[in-house]
Amino acid sequence: MANNILVTRSSMPELQEYMDEISSIWDSHWLTNMGPKHKQLQAALCDYMGVENIDLLTNGHMALELTLQALNLQGEVITTPFTFASTTHAIVRNGLTPVFCDIDSETYCIDASKIEKLITDYTCAIMPVHVYGNICNIEEIERIAHKYELKVIYDAAHTFGETYKGKGIGSFGDASCFSFHATKVFNSIEGGAVCFSDKQLGTKLYELKNFGIHGPEEVLAVGANAKMNEFCAAMGLCNLRHAEEEIEKRRKVVERYRKRLGGVDGIQLNCIQKDVKSNYAYFPVVFEEKQFGASRAEVFDKLAENGIGARKYFYPLTNTFECFHNQYDVLKTPVALHISKRVLTLPLYAELAFEDVDRICDIILSCKY
Ligand SMILES: *Cc1c(COP(=O)(O)O)cnc(C)c1O
């Protein structure tokens, strides 16, 4: 169907721009292992993201997983179940125990006022998620981490290009992990990055992404292979040139949605945060059936009938996944459960036409009665 609208559409440069960018790879024959494109993208991202240090990886998941490994953690990690599988999996795959904290009903991020109650003798870290690009309560998380000597690793996969109080969002906590996956605001096809302050952590990460190799005859850690290759770095360099423009287009799409859906009974739109420069990554809408007059399922089905792909993002909660065999009590995170049953993220990308936004909103509002 010609009129199908997916929830997102990957940003791509003009073909010629990418061809020009990769032509030097044919001269150098350097395809991966921290080549010139990798170095160039790293420097350009430090500048754009307003951070001191960054390391590039194959994807956002390896960024999370290897950061936890590099910090040499053991025990329990306080985190949120209202996230993508990756956050929880990174914790569990490191042999750590996730302890799920409930979320805030406005920002959908971890509810920092509930963290302290979950701290035990085994707690080693907090892994909050800036979900949908909404920023966690950084000050309170920092206070708790300092008081109990805990590491803070932000899953910052949704926050590319954002700032908080004028500072790059990657400059908070011990580390912030970004995803440059095809579906994110900025992509390098597949890709990820870790921003960090401690240079020693950087060295460890650099080695862990290359099998733990320290020198030609020295392997110091059981590492993985998570090096960003030159073609991905080249795509990143091209997309970065257009990032500001893409975010500005997203802003306009979001404004259109807000104009149409703002103030409607039973619809909660995403919060607008003071001191945050947003990247307009997602447009989540929470439907309260009683006030709105239709359930999330009805809206989802109606949109699907019309070829529009909204997503139940994030549903189900990660603490209910089959792979965890009912180990976690979902009733301990009631707000997350409530939101996950009612939220839909609507299509959002730079090229989404206003007419399409209007059509999506018309369909949603037609469900009301
Ligand atoms: C996309 C995403 C990841 C994983 O990133 P990949 O680059 O796909 O590996 C991790 N956490 C969150 C919240 C994400 O949305």
**Shape label:** globular
Roughly what percent helix? 25-40%
Q: Tell me about the biggest sheet? A: 7 strands, mixed
Radius of gyration: 21 Å
Please work out how many helical segments DSSP would assign: 12
Q: Which class do the helix and strand fractions yield?
A: alpha/beta
SSE topology string: HHEHEHEEHEEEEEHEEHHEEEHHHEH
Question: Span between N and C termini?
Answer: 27 Å
Uncertain residue ranges? none
In round numbers, the mean pLDDT is: 97
E-strand count: 15
Ligands in the structure? Answer: pyridoxal-5'-phosphate
State the strand order across the main sheet.
1-9-8-5-4-2-3
3D structure, described in words:
The protein has 369 residues and is of the alpha/beta class. Helices cover 36% and strands 15% of the residues. The protein has helices at residues 15-28, 36-49, 60-70, 85-93, 138-148, 199-208, 230-241, 243-261, 289-292, 296-305, 334-340, 354-366, and strands at residues 53-57, 76-79, 97-100, 123-127, 151-155, 163-164, 167-168, 175-179, 192-196, 213-215, 218-219, 267-269, 276-277, 284-287, 343-345. The strands form 4 sheets. It has a 7-stranded mixed sheet, with helices on both faces. Strands 7-6-13 form a 3-stranded antiparallel sheet, with no helix packed on it. Helix 1 packs antiparallel against helix 7 (230-241). The model has no long low-confidence stretch (mean pLDDT 97). The site of pyridoxal-5'-phosphate has 14 residues, from helix 3 and helix 4.
Brief summary:
The protein has helices at residues 15-28, 36-49, 60-70, 85-93, 138-148, 199-208, 230-241, 243-261, 289-292, 296-305, 334-340, 354-366; strands at 53-57, 76-79, 97-100, 123-127, 151-155, 163-164, 167-168, 175-179, 192-196, 213-215, 218-219, 267-269, 276-277, 284-287, 343-345.
